[in-house]
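Posting this for the archive.
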Amino acid sequence: MNASQTGSLPDPLEDDRRTLRSALEGASHLLACLDFDGTLAPIVDDPDAATPLAETERILERLAADPAVTTAIVSGRALADVRDRIDGPSVYAGNHGLELVREGSLAVHPIARKRATHVDTVCAVLETVLESVANVRIENKRLTGTVHLRSVPAASRPIVRRATREVVEWIGGDDLELSTGKCILEIGPSIGWGKGDAVELIAADLPPDTVVVYVGDDVTDESAFRAVEPDGIGVRVGTDEPTAASASVRSPADVATFLRWLYSDGLALLESPPSATP
């Protein structure tokens, strides 16, 4: 029984390689979905300074160029932001899947679009309410908002959490919800939509025997792990808490190693699609 069934700590990926090999051997196509922060790029104090590891960029470009592979970035960042930070993938999902670009077409969740004014108002009010708190950062991503706590003094974090919750409830009511991540508070529309839904939409465009791999590091990636397991493989970056992913790696550097294995060994396991009949 794997982590996706028990919510336990996942197996290190090197110990679970047999499961991954088996999944690839039964497929003709690979969908590789990747979070950005904490997965392709190390977590940094200033989110604006986040950049993917050079080795990761190189191997991702090679994977994206292979016709048997579809690569997708699925990030909590705004779509325009994450697209500026990494090139190569054919699909991008921003704002936890509320924005999706595939085959040159942009789709935005209609309810999220309608509630964007609420998010804008919450972020503006929080800028004023939390002005006196050292190092707090309010990021307005149009469809969602993020309150960054990483550089906030520990003694001030409960104040930020309480004020954020109160402002979201006051302005958003039932239209907005507040969730937590690694040193962040996420403000977004309460519509039951997440990264897992975006991954399912992306996979629906691909051959039915596509194997889906999702790599991510945070609470917001759990819906994607649940979406791909057990037929696909969820890979959690970091192993400090239970997860729906069945495998894990320790760091973004290990993600680069995993992607290199996928390119050098994993793709050779895929079955060639049948030739068209003349």
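The two ends are 45 Å apart (CA to CA). Confidence is low (pLDDT under 50) at residues 1-6.
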